[in-house]
Amino acid sequence: MENILYILLALLAAAVLYVVYIYNSLVRKKAHADNGWSQIDVQLKRRYDLIPNLVETVKAYATHEREIFERIAALRSASLAATTVEETAPLQNQLTGALKSLLAVSENYPDLKANRNFLALQEELASTENKIAFARQYYNDAVKEYNIAIAVFPNNLISGKLGYAPRTLWAVDDASERNAVDVSFR
Description:
This protein has a single domain, classed as de novo design (two linked rop proteins). Helices cover 77% and strands 0% of the residues. The protein has helices at residues 2-61, 66-81, 85-105, 110-114, 116-151, 155-159. The model has no long low-confidence stretch (mean pLDDT 87). Its main location: membrane.
């Protein structure tokens, strides 16, 4: 009888240790996904900071391009207010398109294309776009690992009860927006 009690206690201890292992694994994967989102947020903040300078520089040369300036300002404001992937991703995709339009406008203004400030902003924006792309990739990798971890058996038996839900991957809605912003006009 005593041996059966020891076996039951050992099984119970093994089950508790396994639940703790799964819980800790889920916490780590969730933290990686959170970190990925933070990295995107940092790069988007950098992009938001560049946009007013770029717009002001272009405005000095292309005063009658008001519609594009207003669209960029509205998208920037809406993006700053967005907090989730579902809210942020479409706005960022639209903002990328608007920035492409803004940079395309510069083609019509040779003096603008030669302006050192504009060229520096173009380079900074290109660098930021690359960093955003890397941050999105890291986020999607982390979310993929997290989503797999909560969905595989036997993790799926307890992940929902512990409050872990699948996360949304960063995706591009419009296939034409998959292209990076072309900022090289030299």
